[in-house]
Design a protein that fits this description.
single chain; 202 residues; alpha+beta; Peptide Deformylase; two-stranded parallel sheet; 5 helices; 26% helix; globular; disordered N terminus; peptide deformylase activity; metal-binding
């Protein structure tokens, strides 16, 4: 008798576009027996790198669960030495975050020009706290509590917003949001070209 082992192929998944209701849901915690979690995480890394991202959250691939992945080492490693001094104590990370919950944020608020794979071709300066302490489990469901700083904290806070049903544009002043309305409407209607797969609201 021959056992047919199912082969899992790593896939690039379509990214959900602005206007899709999943992006506004508060995502749920998961348990270690979540179906095909290992494959899902592998696909999220593949999707993130395939779209030149530094982080991606599960709601962006249409799964309302508290899971995101971050590779801020790409940013830190790409900086010149004098630029690295702007982010003391931040060497970048490549990490999986499951069931993340913020313990506290701190430090001085600072601005950084952010973009989002779900809101393509829109970039704006967003103010966020300098540090974030998170409790979460890693991909082996080992409990973690760590404090992150600098651009790594920034990427984590951006992805954390996704699992709380928020987007980076929510941090903008109302006038700036109004100025972006036509661009956002075009994204929702699929009137935009990107070099990665997207799912648009029906």
């Amino acid at each position: 008798m021959q056992i047919n082992k199912k082969q899992h192929k790593i896939m690039i998944l379509p990214i959900v576009a602005y206007g899709h209701p999943v992006l506004r849901k508060v995502a749920d915690d998961i348990t270690p027996d979540y179906p095909q979690l290992k494959e899902l995480i592998a696909n999220m890394w593949e999707t993130m790198y395939g779209s030149n991202g530094v982080g991606i959250a599960a709601p962006q691939i249409n799964k309302s669960i508290r899971l995101f992945v971050v590779d801020s080492k790409q940013i830190i490693d790409g900086l010149e030495d004098d630029e690295k001094s702007e982010y003391p104590g931040d060497e970048g990370i490549k990490e999986v975050f499951i069931n993340a919950h913020i313990v506290e944020t701190g430090g001085k608020e600072w601005a950084y020009n952010e973009g989002c794979l779900s809101i393509p071709k829109v970039r704006e300066d967003v103010y966020r706290d300098e540090t974030v302490t998170l409790s979460y489990v890693n991909e082996h469901f080992e409990p973690q509590q760590k404090t992150f700083t600098g651009v790594t904290a920034r990427v984590i806070l951006h992805e954390y917003d996704h699992i709380d049903g928020k987007l980076f544009i929510d941090h903008l002043k109302p006038l700036k949001r109004r100025m972006l309305k036509s661009k956002l409407d075009d994204i929702t209607k699929g009137k935009i070209r990107v070099d990665y797969k997207m799912t648009f609201p029906k």
